[in-house]
C-alpha cells in the first residue's frame, strides 16, 4: 500500500507542477485552447494517443471484447493503429491544420460554421459536442474508479471526486500546453506499464503457450459458432461480424471526434505532421494492441470472481486479472490507467469548455468578449463540465463500453462526413451538413430507446451511413456561393518552394 501511495503522490505532484509551469502559455485564447499552434510532433502525437486511449479501453473494452472475441480482439487494437491513427493523420492532419488556420478557427463547431458559412450550423454543432461528450467522460471515471477500488479499497465516489479535482486543476492552470506536456509524460508511463502488465499476466498463467493452450480448449458460447473448438484463439474469433462493428466504431470514430481532430489544429509545421504520424501509429500499436491482446485472455479468470447474480460483469474482468499481480505492479497499473484516463479527461473538458465559450456564448449571448473574459468563462465551464460528468458518473446507466458507444456514435456519426468532405470536396452543401447531423444523432438517440442494435453497432452504422447521406443530399440541394467555396479552399492553392528531397522536380519536355 505504501508503494502504491508513493507512486500516486509523485504522479499527482508532477501533473500539478506541469500545470503551474504551463501558465505562461495560457495567457490568451489561442494559447489556452491550441498552445499557440506551435506544438511539436512528440507532444502532439502523444496528446492524440493518450486522448484516444483511456480506462474505457483498458478496463471496459479490453475486458468485454476480449471475453467475447478472445485473441481476435487484438484486431481492434490494430484497427485503432492503422485506421484511427495512421490514416487519420495522413488523410486529415495536414488539410485540417491548413484550413483551420486559414479560417481562423479554434474548435470543430467553429470550423463548420466558417467552412459552410452558417452560424446555425456552428451553434448546433456546439450543442451536439457538449451534450455527447458528457457520457464519454462519465465512462472514463467509471473505468478508473473500478481499478482504484480493486487496488486501494477506496469508495467509488472518492475516486471520482479526486480524479475530477486534479484534472480540473492542471487544465485550468495551463490549458492545452499543460495537457500536451502531461500527455507526453503519461504516454511514456502507459507504454512501459502495458508491456510490464502483459508480461506479468502471461507469466502468472504459465507463460504465453500455456495460456494459449488453456484458451484454445474453451468452447464458444456465441450462438453462430456454438461448440467451435479453439474459437477464442482463431484468426477472426467466434463472431467476426460483431468484431468488425467494434473495429469501425473505435477506429473510424476518431475522425469525427472534436477532442481528437482539434489536436491537428495545434500542429507546429510540416515536419511535426510527418514525425507525429509515425509516433502516433507506434503508440497505438503498443497501447491499443497490448490492451486488447491482454483482454484476449479474459476467460482465464475464475468465472465466480467476475459474476454477479449469474451475469458476467465485463468491467470487473481486467481489475480481477490484475488483482493477482504483485503490489509494485498493481501500483504501476494504477498509474498507467490513471495516466490514460486523466489525459483523456483533460482533452474532453478543454474541448467542451472552449466549444461552449467560443461557439455558443461568444457572439451570441455576449457580443463583445475580451480575451480575459473568454479565458475566465472557459475556466468556469471546465468546472461546470467536470461537475456534470461527475454527477452522471455516480450512477452510470450501463457498462463502460455502451456509454462510449453512445458518445462516439453520436459525435462521429454527426461530424465525420461534414469534416472529411469539407476538407476535400467543394460540393458539400449546408443541407448536406444538416442531414449528416440529423442522421448521426438521430440513429444514436433512436437506438437508445428502441435497442435495435447494440450501442457499438449503432455507432458504427451512424458513421458509415453519414458518409453516404451527406454527399447524396449535397447532390440534390442548392450549392454554396462560389465565392464562399473559393475562399475556404484558397488556402490549398498557395505556392510553397521546397527542396527536391521533399518534392521531385517536374520533367522538362524538350521541343
Molecular structure report:
The chain is built from 19 helices and 2 strands. By secondary structure, it is an all-alpha fold. It has one domain: Sodium/glucose cotransporter, CATH 1.20.1730.10. Helix 4 packs across helix 7 and helix 16 runs parallel beside helix 18.
In short:
With 511 residues, the chain is mainly α. The chain has helices spanning 2-21, 29-34, 41-52, 55-69, 74-102, 108-115, 119-152, 156-204, 208-216, 240-252, 258-265, 270-295, 317-322, 327-361, 371-394, 400-424, 430-450, 455-475, 482-489, and strands at 307-308, 311-312.
Roughly how much helix do the residues carry, as a percent range?
over 70%
Please report the total strand number as a whole number: 2
CATH fold assignment: Sodium/glucose cotransporter
CATH architecture label: Up-down Bundle
The main pleated sheet reads as: 2 strands, antiparallel
Amino acid at each position: 500500500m505504501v508503494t502504491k501511495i508513493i507512486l500516486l503522490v509523485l504522479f499527482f505532484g508532477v501533473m500539478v507542477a506541469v500545470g503551474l509551469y504551463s501558465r505562461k502559455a495560457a495567457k490568451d485564447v489561442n494559447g489556452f485552447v491550441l498552445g499557440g499552434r506551435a506544438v511539436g510532433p512528440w507532444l502532439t502525437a502523444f496528446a492524440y494517443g493518450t486522448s484516444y486511449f483511456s480506462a474505457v479501453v483498458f478496463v471496459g473494452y479490453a475486458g468485454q471484447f476480449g471475453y467475447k472475441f478472445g485473441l481476435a480482439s487484438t484486431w481492434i487494437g490494430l484497427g485503432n493503429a492503422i485506421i484511427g491513427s495512421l490514416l487519420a493523420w495522413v488523410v486529415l492532419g495536414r488539410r485540417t491544420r491548413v484550413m483551420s488556420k486559414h479560417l481562423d478557427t479554434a474548435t470543430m463547431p467553429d470550423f463548420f460554421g466558417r467552412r459552410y458559412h452558417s452560424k446555425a450550423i456552428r451553434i448546433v454543432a456546439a450543442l451536439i459536442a457538449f451534450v455527447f461528450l458528457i457520457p464519454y467522460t462519465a465512462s472514463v471515471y467509471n473505468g478508473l474508479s473500478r481499478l482504484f477500488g480493486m487496488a486501494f479499497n477506496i469508495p467509488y465516489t472518492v475516486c471520482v471526486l479526486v480524479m475530477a479535482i486534479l484534472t480540473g486543476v492542471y487544465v485550468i492552470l495551463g490549458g492545452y500546453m499543460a495537457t500536451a506536456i502531461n500527455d507526453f509524460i503519461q504516454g511514456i508511463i502507459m507504454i512501459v506499464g502495458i508491456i510490464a502488465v502483459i508480461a506479468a499476466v502471461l507469466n502468472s498463467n504459465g507463460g504465453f503457450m500455456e495460456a494459449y493452450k488453456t484458451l484454445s480448449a474453451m468452447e464458444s458460447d456465441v450462438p453462430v459458432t456454438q461448440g467451435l473448438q479453439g474459437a477464442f484463439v482463431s484468426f477472426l474469433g467466434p463472431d467476426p461480424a460483431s468484431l468488425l462493428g467494434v473495429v469501425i466504431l473505435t477506429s473510424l470514430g476518431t475522425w469525427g471526434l472534436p477532442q481528437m481532430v482539434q489536436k491537428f489544429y495545434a500542429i507546429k509545421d510540416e515536419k511535426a505532421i510527418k514525425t507525429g504520424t509515425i509516433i502516433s501509429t507506434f503508440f497505438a500499436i503498443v497501447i491499443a494492441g497490448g490492451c486488447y491482446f491482454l483482454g484476449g485472455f479474459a476467460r482465464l479468470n475464475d468465472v465466480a470472481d467476475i459474476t454477479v447474480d449469474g451475469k458476467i460483469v465485463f468491467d470487473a474482468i481486467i481489475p480481477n486479472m490484475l488483482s493477482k499481480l504483485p503490489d509494485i505492479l498493481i501500483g504501476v497499473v494504477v498509474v498507467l490507467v490513471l495516466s490514460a484516463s486523466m489525459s483523456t479527461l483533460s482533452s474532453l473538458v478543454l474541448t467542451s469548455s472552449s466549444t461552449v465559450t467560443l461557439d455558443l456564448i461568444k457572439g451570441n449571448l455576449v457580443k463583445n468578449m475580451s480575451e480575459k473574459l473568454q479565458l475566465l468563462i472557459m475556466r468556469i465551464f471546465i468546472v461546470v463540465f467536470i461537475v456534470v460528468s461527475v454527477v452522471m458518473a455516480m450512477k452510470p446507466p450501463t457498462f463502460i463500453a455502451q456509454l462510449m458507444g453512445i458518445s462516439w456514435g453520436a459525435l462521429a456519426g454527426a461530424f465525420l462526413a461534414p469534416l472529411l468532405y469539407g476538407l476535400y470536396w467543394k460540393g458539400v452543401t449546408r443541407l448536406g451538413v444538416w442531414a449528416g447531423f440529423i442522421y448521426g444523432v438521430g440513429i444514436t438517440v433512436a437506438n437508445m430507446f428502441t435497442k435495435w442494435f447494440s450501442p457499438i453497432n449503432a455507432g458504427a452504422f451512424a458513421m458509415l451511413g453519414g458518409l453516404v447521406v451527406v454527399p447524396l443530399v449535397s447532390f440534390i440541394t442548392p450549392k454554396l456561393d462560389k465565392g464562399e467555396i473559393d475562399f475556404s479552399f484558397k488556402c490549398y492553392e498557395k505556392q510553397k518552394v521546397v527542396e527536391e528531397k521533399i518534392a521531385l522536380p517536374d520533367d522538362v519536355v524538350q521541343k
